[in-house]
Amino acid sequence: MITDLHTVPGFVFNGFSAGLKKNNQLDLAIIHAEKPCAAAAAFTRNLVVAEPVKVCKKQMEDGLIQTVVINSKNANACTGELGKQAVYDEIKRTSSIFHVAEKDVFIASTGVIGRPFPITQVLNGITLAANGLENTEKSSDATARAIMTTDTKPKGASFTFSLGEQTIHIGGIAKGSGMIHPNMGTMLSFIITDLNIKPEVLKVALNKAVDRSFNMISIDGDTSTNDTVLVMANGKAANDLIDSTSHQHYAKVEEELTRICIDLGQTIVDDGEGITKMITFEVKGLPEEEDCRKIIRTLSTSLLVKTAFFGKDPNWGRLFAAAGRAGVNFDPDKVDLFMGQNDELCLLKTGQPEELDEALADEILSKRDVKVKFDFNQGKAHAIGWGSDLSYDYVKINAEYTT
């Protein structure tokens, strides 16, 4: 898995063992910039939120972040005043160790909800990290591994793109394989870039990117208490400052930020707990993009749809029925439904069932990557989202999560 944070200049990072997990597994990650960065974040929309989320919403008020601390194993959620104080203790220790302003520290946690937070171990881990940050492929991989919980592999993406004559580097890591659902539903993602951009403009771009990526994935319909996406831009590329959404290069920035968020979101779905199928849902032909998204959210969370895909059952009626209960008004007699990466299996044409090619259906459903496409033929809007099937292993993993 590509976790090339080290391709972005001006940052150092690493993963450490603070003793939260057994057998000296990595459980604490730190990302540190040479100077305060323009930053933007998106958080869970769950009403029950972890203590780091509460605190870091305030930390983001000036749009600047320099050092990020992430722990796994314990979510520091539903931990009361002790959990909240632990976040402030982490901020103070990080500020002292890395010589940064307290207001420029960002804290994130992931793991089990409702367990006392092991603040002593985490603080010791931060101190341990003082001389351990690097900008290498090895430290990038360790950073991605340190934030994993039930993930089976580290997740990351990186690439470059051009703004005029300047080359922009961007890289990111993510974690999550369960408790994943639209509305930032446990997933964490941290993206770094050398882009030169104002924080308020970066915030607009991130919100647009999240709506088309992380908010369009679902594994189990549960929105986490801790979901966080953070982007840090250090300006080292020295491109012409992107200071508004009307800047000539803003659209390109939004496009590339969306691209990396989609890449990271897909890695999360592909590592979903117990999944055997990664399903791409494409919906087009409705009046509004939000209508298309509603259909996708309903399809990707339907237990009947998910179990049909696990059983390789071409029961397309479940797809059509799910679309019909999504709260979107449409004429069923105008709808086309296809399955396959190239829409090779037509199941429904202008609301009328097509003869099922069972051999082709079996061929499509025997693959790990499956695509479903609805064309409602009643508008010009379009959206894409990603989901998974529901397997026996998902039940086993989550039945034994805290044990």
UniProtKB/TrEMBL annotation:
Protein purpose: Catalyzes two activities which are involved in the cyclic version of arginine biosynthesis: the synthesis of N-acetylglutamate from glutamate and acetyl-CoA as the acetyl donor, and of ornithine by transacetylation between N(2)-acetylornithine and glutamate.
Record-listed substrate binding positions: T149, K175, T186, E273, N398, T403
Keywords attached to this entry: Acyltransferase, Amino-acid biosynthesis, Arginine biosynthesis, Autocatalytic cleavage, Cytoplasm, Multifunctional enzyme, Transferase
Name of this chain's protein: Arginine biosynthesis bifunctional protein ArgJ
Feature type site, description Involved in the stabilization of negative charge on the oxyanion by the formation of the oxyanion hole: T110, G111
Catalyzed reactions per annotation: L-glutamate + acetyl-CoA = N-acetyl-L-glutamate + CoA + H(+); N(2)-acetyl-L-ornithine + L-glutamate = N-acetyl-L-glutamate + L-ornithine
InterPro entries according to UniProt: Arg_biosynth_ArgJ, ArgJ-like_dom_sf, ArgJ_beta_C
Pathway: Amino-acid biosynthesis; L-arginine biosynthesis; L-ornithine and N-acetyl-L-glutamate from L-glutamate and N(2)-acetyl-L-ornithine (cyclic): step 1/1; Amino-acid biosynthesis; L-arginine biosynthesis; N(2)-acetyl-L-ornithine from L-glutamate: step 1/4
Family according to the record: Belongs to the ArgJ family.
Gene name in the database record: argJ
Annotated active site: T186
Chief location of this protein within or outside the cell: cytoplasm
Record-annotated site: Cleavage: G185, T186
Entry EC number(s): 2.3.1.35, 2.3.1.1
Cell compartments where the protein resides: Cytoplasm
Coiled coil: none
Subunit and partners: Heterotetramer of two alpha and two beta chains.
Enzyme category, top tier: transferase
